[in-house]
Each structure stands twice: as structure tokens, then as C-alpha cells.
Design a protein that fits this description.
By secondary structure, the chain is of the alpha+beta class. The chain is built from nine helices and 15 strands.
Length: 301
């Protein structure tokens, strides 16, 4: 079977064919259970849950990146210790993304009367987390809003209403630079892409080296070079932004730097930042709730 990692679905088909995917039709609860099973399989197989409690429209997959050996193999490297050379080549010689007319991410389009919480599956990771957060969405900004380049990264979100959420931005990050530059100059159109090709996942989590990847660089081009061919983008339906054509879900909208949203109800009630627990962080500690810029949703595809 020829390896195809141009989408999450084709990647799962490949992993299934080589015996690195565990699939289950047993219903799984997005509240704590998904995270618990994922942690149990840390370092092991990728997981695909076909039946998710509360989401008859959805499936959840995780742990594709749980093994360094598997990550290396996905990108054509036999020894994970040599993956750094593959990454260096991609940085030196990016393959720019291409814009296509349409893509699977827009098979279904919702532009009114939707509640993001009901449409997009979100999980909780710890008992002390006050709610289910969206941490798997990759933010894409391109063109004039990123100095002519392309940015992809992670921003944790908590939907406090049917069509708006908090939007946490790491200080000094590319999104922080974008928000600072466009502060109060109008809405910043972005797309939140979920279930993307593995090269996009890798790049979204690896773009913090700003000496190597300064603002205006082509992060999606590096992702393209990692996978060996361009990442395909499609115009969003409701904002002037681009989405990853092969994404499973896209939340379209804009960052509003004129309004703030609290990440949790208790933090808002007590008006305290950096005190109450919110969403475990990648480094292994429990995060804290803050007051962030508002993300206004305009559509879900």
C-alpha cells in the first residue's frame, strides 16, 4: 500500500494497514475518558473512536504522534534521531501551499443557528479542568495579516457561548505579534482547522523558534516540504481567510481585539487571572484561567 499522508483520513488508512491503529466501536465519553485512554496508550498505537457520547456526527482520533518512531516513518525517516535532518531540509526549502477551488472541509457548511459545542467534539483532560476545551484546533493566518507569509499554530479555546470563545495566546508568539500589530484596527480573520494532515499538526506544534521562523515566514510551506508536496488551502465561506482543504472541521471567524472573554466561569465570577485551574499544558502542569481576546465564530464547515 502506497503511503498517503495528505489528509488525516488517508493517514489513518495507512496506519491501519501497517498495524499501528486501534479502532473501537464502543462508545467513549469525551469527558475524561478519551484523555484517560489516550494516556494509557502513550507511546503505543494511534487510536480511533468511532462512537462518541453526545456526538452522533463525529469520531475522535488521537495518539498519532505518541511514538517518535511512528512520526519519523510517516515522514520517510527510518531512525527518529535523524528526523531533525528532514526538518532542517524542510526549513531550508519550503514548498508553498496552493489554493484550490474546493475541498472536503466544506462538504457541510453551517452559517447560522449553530452551537459550536454541539457540532465539534471537545474533550476534558482533568477533573480540575472547569470545562471541555478545544485544544486540537490549528489556527491558520495567511497573507497581509501575517506579513505575506503563512502561520499555523495552537490556541486553546473555551466556548462560553454558542458562537464565541476565549482565545489564549502565548506572549511573544506569532499570534501575539499578529494581535499586537492589528490591535483595535479591525477584526482579524482566521480559521481554526481540526483533523488536519500530520505535517500540519507537526508544524503547528513546532513553530516557536522565531530566529528560524520569523514573522512573515511560510510555515505551511515547511509543512508542505515535510510531506513532500504542497498543503492545499481553500477560501473560507464567511471570512476573508484560508482553510486547510483536507481538514475534518473548520471553525471560521475572527479575533476581536476590542473585546475580552474569561476562560472559565469561576475566574470570571471572582475576576481573578492566573489563579483557577484551566486545561493541562503540554509540559505536564495544570494551566490557569485568564481573560483573553474574543474569538467570534462566523461559520463551521
Amino acid at each position: 500500500m502506497k503511503k498517503d499522508i495528505s489528509s488525516l483520513r488517508s493517514t489513518l488508512e495507512h496506519l491501519d494497514a501497517v498495524g499501528e491503529l486501534v479502532t473501537t466501536d464502543v462508545e467513549v465519553d469525551p469527558h475524561l475518558e478519551v484523555a484517560a485512554i489516550q494516556k494509557h496508550f502513550d507511546g503505543g498505537a494511534a487510536l480511533l473512536f468511532n462512537k462518541v457520547k453526545g456526538y452522533p456526527n463525529a469520531r475522535i482520533c488521537n495518539n498519532i504522534f505518541a511514538s517518535a518512531e511512528r512520526v519519523a516513518r510517516l515522514f520517510g525517516v527510518d531512525d527518529p534521531r535523524k528526523f531533525k535532518h528532514r526538518a532542517a531540509e524542510a526549513l531550508r526549502d519550503p514548498i508553498p501551499p496552493v489554493e484550490v477551488k474546493d475541498g472536503p472541509c466544506q462538504d457541510v457548511v453551517l452559517t447560522k443557528d449553530f452551537d459550536v459545542w454541539d457540532v465539534v467534539p471537545m474533550i476534558s483532560h482533568a477533573k480540575s479542568d472547569p470545562g471541555r476545551t478545544l485544544g486540537a484546533g490549528t489556527t491558520v493566518v495567511r497573507g497581509e495579516y501575517f506579513w505575506g507569509g503563512s502561520h499555523i499554530g495552537y490556541n486553546r479555546m473555551n466556548f462560553r457561548g454558542p458562537d464565541y470563545s476565549s482565545f489564549q495566546i502565548s506572549p511573544g508568539s506569532h499570534m501575539d505579534q499578529v494581535a499586537t500589530h492589528w490591535f483595535r484596527k479591525g477584526p482579524i480573520p482566521v480559521t481554526i482547522n481540526i483533523g488536519v494532515p500530520p505535517a500540519c499538526t507537526a508544524m503547528a506544534g513546532a513553530g516557536f523558534t522565531y530566529v528560524i521562523l520569523p514573522r512573515g515566514c511560510d510555515e505551511l510551506g515547511v509543512a508542505g516540504a515535510l510531506q513532500g508536496y504542497p498543503v492545499e488551502l481553500v477560501k473560507a465561506k464567511t471570512v476573508d481567510a484560508l482553510a486547510i482543504a483536507q481538514a475534518e472541521y473548520v471553525i471560521e471567524g475572527y479575533l476581536d481585539t476590542t473585546q475580552k472573554v474569561w476562560e472559565s466561569e469561576i475566574a470570571e465570577k471572582e475576576q481573578k487571572q492566573g489563579v483557577h485551574p484551566f486545561h493541562p499544558e503540554w509540559a505536564g502542569y495544570m494551566g490557569k484561567a485568564y481573560r483573553t481576546y474574543k474569538f467570534q465564530v462566523t461559520g463551521v464547515t
